[in-house]
């Protein structure tokens, strides 16, 4: 369906029906397909969850969860409950995956609607046809899918709430552990250790510049010596390279072999969640989180010519299947715009082990909505991602590209030394016409077998082996999928959590480097909680969740089987391990202030050198990345006195900037609460207060100065720009994405 096209309303029934989805955008897009007999409302995401202030799981009562309605959702839940009471039928139209099923179940539990009054409908694209089909084929809520989601949520809560306090006591305050999060940290740490352990080796490559008989230049690489193929490290140093150079110079050369081979390159399948995250990271440099945020917008609907249009199918999927309707549309487009030669009838079959929440691949809802035709309605990120999805889906229905590869050998007369050069030519571009890759022509000069090749120069080139690259979002997602750790829908939030919790940082905005504390926490977990960070164990748990979803297992026994040995081990380690043995390491260095031994300690942000005579002597030194130490700057003494003990205040620097604290720390822990800095922004929530800079133990945040009367708060600094949908200020997150400060605005 093209944007702006007048569409007929679905008059499915004369009853007053309530349709509930997660987001206002999704509600707006769906409502245009329905008559006035339907009222489409949004829940603004999850409406119930485990409580934030306590564990919320009764372990002794078969792991019974206690769900609460968050304060921010109470008003909305009350409104929806009233609407549900008045409706003749309630349609739960949340997303088709386990999270969506759970939201529908929670809403049904809150509403207490009888089965005769409630229906569950699902669809994988927001189009008129899909909504009509969903209404024609309602079902009941799938309790197996709900239980699978509950099992994951409860297990993650048990691990987080039990293991994180253990880290606080034994390592440092503020640390966290998570069932999948800690496995991702292990991957990042192990990759860094590979890099640290890597031994760089020198090696040399020898190339020859030649001329054909027609005086055309080309360059070839030394390939064989005395019949032996040279591997990458065959020429180890300059002396060996120079010796070979002398033997190669002054020889006569001829073309001994020309091999031509035609190859085919097939198109890739359309995107799954995982492959979309990988390709968007490689091509567009989007993080996994950024990709999913933009894809969500494209799925729920974009304003085009005054109409809200869902542009892609559901973006959480493990499937590469495409509907017959789409493949027919794609075939028509390819024939009409490119010609029959470009058309292929290839079908992709889903191979994913956990294809649990998928019906179809990620594709455009209509082939005729080309990226160029709606470019003005999309922002830069939306256009780039939609273009990628559109091109990949259409290209999957196109014929293979045909390439001709040519390999030429250039020998000395005695055939002792052989150079080789390769090239390729695209004979037919096929799917590359729509979905271009790095493939390009590497054209060689015209040559004939046995003709002379004139040597112009021999060039030895020094090279060094390179350590493995750190993980990008793309390579990390690929490994997670290969190992069966988590599911595609969990990759993006897990990677984001690892960064937010201070276990990794982005290098050059792309590669993930572990922090010092990541090594400490990972080593502790690997040594004392091996199952928690074991790849196979974590993958097996994902299989258990799949079995629960399919009705093969009950969720409580799965939780019990994991929890009982985990909890026993945790209690044993509580008694067995002391903070000192985990976080202190003896050194030969003496304190330059009091002469006591210096020890390596572990703090919230990693290792540092400290005097063993603490707190009598407070000498500390920073440990640099090269292993050297650096004196910590003395805090600046201020004229102000501490109101609690009378000592001078000093200016200290913490993770979130400068602050004033007592010089008698740690005996006195007074910190001066500075006046909040006004941002000259009116509070968007209460309209009375002002948005000011505040500080908490977790860092700087921005909130209303009338708190607790108004609880508006955001971690990201608000900008002058206002959200077009709700009027709240926009903000820039740590990845540079511009987003709304209103948590319920999507």
TrEMBL record:
Residues 142-571 form the Topo IA-type catalytic domain. One of its GO terms (biological process) is DNA topological change. This is DNA topoisomerase 1. It catalyses: ATP-independent breakage of single-stranded DNA, followed by passage and rejoining. The record marks 46, 152-153, 156, 161, 168, 316, 501 as: Interaction with DNA. Residues 176-181 are annotated as: Interaction with DNA. Belongs to the type IA topoisomerase family. One of its GO terms (molecular function) is zinc ion binding. Transmembrane segments: none annotated. Monomer. Pfam families: Topoisom_bac (PF01131), Toprim (PF01751), Zn_ribbon_Top1 (PF01396). SUPFAM superfamilies: Prokaryotic type I DNA topoisomerase, Zinc beta-ribbon. Its EC number is 5.6.2.1. Residues 16-126 form the Toprim domain. Releases the supercoiling and torsional tension of DNA, which is introduced during the DNA replication and transcription, by transiently cleaving and rejoining one strand of the DNA duplex. Introduces a single-strand break via transesterification at a target site in duplex DNA. The scissile phosphodiester is attacked by the catalytic tyrosine of the enzyme, resulting in the formation of a DNA-(5'-phosphotyrosyl)-enzyme intermediate and the expulsion of a 3'-OH DNA strand. The free DNA strand then undergoes passage around the unbroken strand, thus removing DNA supercoils. Keywords: DNA-binding, Isomerase, Magnesium, Metal-binding, Topoisomerase, Zinc, Zinc-finger. It is an enzyme of class 5 (isomerase). InterPro entries: Topo_IA, Topo_IA_2, Topo_IA_AS, Topo_IA_cen, Topo_IA_cen_sub1, Topo_IA_cen_sub2, Topo_IA_cen_sub3, Topo_IA_core_domain. CDD domains: TOP1Ac, TOPRIM_TopoIA_TopoI. It comes from Candidatus Buchananbacteria bacterium CG10_big_fil_rev_8_21_14_0_10_33_19.
């Amino acid at each position: 369906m093209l944007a702006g096209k007048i569409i007929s309303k679905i008059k499915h029934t004369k009853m007053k029906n309530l349709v509930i989805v997660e987001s206002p955008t999704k509600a707006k897009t769906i409502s245009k397909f329905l008559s006035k007999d339907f009222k489409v409302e949004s829940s603004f995401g999850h409406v119930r969850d485990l409580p934030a202030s306590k564990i919320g799981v009764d372990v002794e009562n078969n792991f019974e969860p206690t769900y609460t309605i968050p304060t921010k959702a109470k008003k909305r839940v009350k409104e929806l409950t009233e609407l549900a009471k008045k409706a003749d039928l309630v349609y739960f139209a949340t997303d088709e995956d386990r999270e969506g099923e759970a939201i529908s179940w929670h809403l049904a539990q809150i509403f207490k609607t009888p089965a005769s009054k409630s229906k569950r409908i699902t669809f994988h694209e927001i189009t008129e046809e899909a909504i009509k089909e969903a209404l024609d084929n309602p079902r009941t809520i799938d309790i197996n899918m709900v239980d699978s989601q509950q099992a994951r949520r409860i297990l993650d809560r048990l691990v987080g709430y039990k293991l994180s306090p253990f880290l606080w006591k034994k390592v440092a305050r503020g640390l966290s552990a998570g069932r999948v999060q800690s496995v991702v940290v292990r991957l990042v740490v192990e990759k860094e250790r590979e890099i640290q352990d890597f031994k760089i080796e020198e090696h040399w490559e020898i190339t020859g510049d030649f001329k054909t008989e027609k005086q055309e230049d080309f360059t070839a690489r030394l390939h064989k010596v005395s019949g032996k193929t040279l591997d990458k490290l065959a020429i180890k140093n300059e002396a060996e390279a120079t010796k070979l150079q002398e033997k190669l110079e002054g020889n006569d050369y001829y073309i001994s072999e020309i091999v031509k081979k035609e190859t085919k390159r097939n198109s890739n399948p359309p995107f799954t969640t995982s492959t979309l995250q990988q390709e968007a990271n490689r091509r567009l440099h989007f993080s996994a989180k950024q990709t999913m945020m933009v894809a969500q917008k494209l799925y729920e609907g974009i304003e085009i010519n005054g109409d809200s249009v869902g542009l892609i199918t559901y973006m959480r999927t493990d499937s590469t299947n495409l509907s017959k309707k789409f493949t027919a549309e794609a075939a028509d487009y390819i024939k009409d715009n490119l010609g029959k030669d470009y058309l292929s009838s290839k079908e992709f079959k889903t191979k994913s082990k956990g294809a649990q929440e998928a019906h179809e691949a990620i594709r455009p809802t209509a082939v005729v909505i080309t990226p160029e035709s709606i470019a003005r309605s999309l922002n830069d990120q939306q256009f780039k991602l939609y273009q990628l999805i559109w091109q990949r889906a259409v290209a999957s229905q196109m014929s293979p590209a045909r390439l001709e590869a040519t390999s030429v050998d250039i020998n000395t007369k005695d055939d002792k030394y052989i150079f080789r050069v390769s090239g390729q030519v695209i004979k037919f571009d096929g799917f590359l016409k729509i979905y271009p890759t790095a493939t390009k022509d590497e054209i060689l000069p015209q040559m004939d077998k046995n003709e002379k090749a004139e040597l112009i120069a021999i060039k030895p080139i020094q090279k060094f082996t390179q350590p493995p690259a750190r993980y990008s979002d793309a390579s990390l997602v690929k490994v997670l999928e290969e190992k069966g750790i988590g599911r595609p829908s969990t990759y993006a939030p897990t990677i984001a959590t690892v960064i937010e919790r201070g276990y990794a940082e982005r290098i050059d905005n792309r590669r993930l480097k572990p922090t010092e504390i990541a090594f400490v926490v990972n080593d502790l977990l690997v040594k004392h909680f091996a199952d928690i960070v074991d790849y196979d164990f974590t993958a097996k748990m994902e299989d258990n969740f799949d079995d629960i979803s399919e009705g093969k297992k009950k969720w409580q026994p799965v939780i019990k089987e994991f929890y009982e040995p985990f909890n026993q081990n945790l209690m044993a380690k509580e008694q067995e391990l002391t903070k000192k043995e985990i976080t202190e390491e003896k050194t030969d260095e003496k304190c330059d202030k009091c002469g006591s031994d210096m020890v390596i300690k572990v703090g919230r942000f990693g290792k540092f050198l400290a005097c063993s005579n603490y707190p009598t002597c407070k000498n500390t030194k920073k440990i640099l990345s090269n292993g050297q130490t650096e004196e910590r700057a003395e805090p600046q003494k201020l004229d102000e006195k501490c109101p609690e003990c009378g000592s001078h205040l000093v200016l200290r620097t913490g993770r979130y900037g400068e602050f004033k604290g007592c010089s008698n720390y740690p005996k006195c822990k007074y910190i001066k609460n500075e006046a909040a800095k006004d941002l000259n922004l009116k509070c968007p929530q209460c309209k009375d207060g002002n948005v000011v800079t505040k500080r908490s133990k977790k860092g700087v945040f921005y909130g209303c100065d009338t708190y607790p009367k108004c609880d508006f708060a955001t971690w990201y600094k608000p900008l002058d720009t206002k959200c077009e949908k709700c009027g709240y200020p926009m903000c820039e997150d740590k990845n540079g994405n511009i987003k709304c400060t209103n948590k319920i605005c999507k």
